[in-house]
């Protein structure tokens, strides 16, 4: 492989998780409507931010997280900066607990993700309740987070294969 | 898991400054959040939202096509198992609708008679803009949809959006080729409505749940409504046309009526943006201000034979040409002959 192609391939691999995140936001904005809208779409960007912050923080720097969150704010039509703040908050917590989770099996990391999702929900609920001036019903958010947490292992296994075989592998 | 977790530093970030950058980004997003909470309608944010909408619209359109195809196929498979029941239900519904059609035709005739008797002018016609749903905010608190029609197609902020069942919401952001509908269930949604047969006006307030509620604030009398009554837009405040169907009352909660929407957001695929021009009440132009339009208006009203006694230019809706000409050429009033 010549020098330029190698450099390009390295750049694409380095940017891949960020691009996945942006793509996941677009997918979240698509009208998927599982089971005729009964099952909410899992918040895939949250999984991506959590996964790469844990296993490859250099692939998910804070500006990437910010960009992913901001795009989601733009597409959901909510207040700008909300999802960016939520994802950056999740990243901060994960980075501070990273040494504990590294090398643990999936189930432990899964529980960690559940806590991260709960923290994210709390921020979302507080900000949106503050914004609307009343305590909003929590049910819809809890259900969506539950679906996200339930879907985590599938995405985690897929991403770890991707990370090992494609992104890190030169 | 041997490679996972090893820091090989081949990504976009660098370790030395990562914590600092993270805190900086958090600060930036919190500041952004605070400023957008206090000035959500600031033109900078609106402009940015509409630009992002325009950029994302083609990509979302590409996504939406296979999704619609798959859902069509899956829906069809489900239909195979209950064709008989569906046919039965459709036949019954068809019979019922035929009766309604007969009644509608009869009423149309009656109305035509009344229109001939009365000095009646039809209001301005609504010109619909059809659009497909290409995206939605799959968010617990923000409920909105994205459609592939924008200012290039004549969509403007505040217009009502209908699907085949009823009111879906209203336009809040308009890009050139895409726009955002704020659904009736969003926390920020406020739509003036009235309850049919109950002489009740109120505001339909979104609560992030599936069923929004009407809060009645106008009257101090005890509010009486019964489940099953229809709820329609009242047109108060001049933001939406009057009489768009919204839903039926299904119950009460803390004095507010809970409304079951006609629109089924899980099935909303194609929508119609109602481009409605509101009647503008202007001062009637003085007669004789300009000879030619006044004559034209007089000739027009005489020809129509609907308004034998109406003075020329007396009604602002009678002749838009005359109105426009009179507005364009403001002459000295010369008195009425």
**Tally of DSSP β-strands of chain B:** 12
Q: How much of the polypeptide of chain A forms β-strand, as a percent range?
A: under 5%
Helix content of chain B: 25-40%
Structural class of chain B: alpha+beta
Task: Provide the residue-averaged pLDDT of chain B.
Answer: 77
What structural class should be given to the helix and strand makeup of chain A? mainly alpha
Radius of gyration of chain A: 17 Å
Q: What is the count of helical runs of chain A?
A: 7
Overall shape of chain B: globular
Helix run count of chain B: 5
At a glance:
Chain A is mainly alpha-helical and 170 residues long.
Tag the structure with descriptive keywords.
heterodimer, A: 170 residues, globular, B: 337 residues, six-stranded antiparallel β-barrel, 35% helix
List the helices and strands and how they pair.
The complex is a heterodimer of chains A (170) and B (337).
Chain A: H1 3-29, H2 44-55, H3 62-76, H4 82-96, H5 98-101, H6 106-132, H7 139-168
Helix pairs in contact in A: 1-2, 1-3, 2-4, 2-7, 3-4, 4-6, 6-7
Chain B: H1 18-38, H2 43-80, H3 83-117, E1 127-136, E2 144-147, E3 160-162, E4 167-174, E5 179-183, E6 190-195, E7 200-205, E8 213-215, E9 230-233, E10 245-253, E11 256-261, E12 270-275, H4 291-304, H5 320-328
Antiparallel strand pairs in B: 1-2, 1-12, 2-5, 3-4, 3-12, 4-5, 6-7, 6-9, 7-8, 8-11, 9-10, 10-11
Helix pairs in contact in B: 4-5
